[in-house]
Amino acid sequence: MHKNSTMRHDDDAGGITENGNAPPLRRRKAQIRESNEAQLLACAEEVFAEKGLEGASTAMIAERAGLPKANLHYYFPTKLALYRRVLEDLFEDWHRAADTFECSDDPVEAIGGYVRAKMALSRRRPLGSKVWASEIIHGAHHMQDILNERVKPWLETRVTVIESWIARGLLAPVEPDTFMFMIWAITQHYADFDAQIRALKGKRALTRKAFDEQTEEVVRLVLRACGAVSPRVEEKTDAE
Predict the structure, then answer these.
(1) How confident is the model at residue 3 (pLDDT cuts 50, 70, 90)?
(2) Cα separation of 195 and 169, whole Å?
(3) CATH no. of 2-77
(4) 0.85 exceeded by the pTM?
(5) Where is the signal peptide (predicted)?
(6) Which of 81, 130, 147, 227 could crosslink 172 through cysteines, CB 3.0-4.6 Å?
């Protein structure tokens, strides 16, 4: 009796079940929550991109997610809370893409890696990029704190890195803020203006191979624009 009582207690606390097959209760609940939240966020991203914040409704999003509206409000009490979560989630993706700046002191590798990561995100999350762009175009009223408290400090650290490359002769004397804005504009163009790209290129959509080729062309253009030079090349030139 004591053994069985202990087993039930362990199950309730999230312990391993006797047969080892079913995950603990807490883990199952966490997995269900994560799955539902991910589904709702993906569908919210689609609806907000299509309808905008004002035109979207939680009923539309719940229907697209295949969940009752009450379930949506269990995870996100208001439409604005869900909208904010979509923006924050997108920022986190972009922030992770920016980790390439931390991986190398070589501007060719760091900038090239950042451009590739941003292009990949434009391919993977074009609707999220549209939501972000629309919010900015309409005054960024719902994300001023994200811009001021998260984007701005990050940008300032990148400016410092770019200035150090310029001082070492590894980059042309570009204006760092303008250079970063240019990268954002070029890479996000492939998400925000994909309809225009398709129309002008006469294609339904870029294939993966065509997108990869376009990405490398964008990398080459950006690196030429800033005059990036690898430290190894610079050291070799000095030695000669």
Answers:
(1) very low
(2) 40
(3) 1.10.10.60
(4) no
(5) none
(6) 227
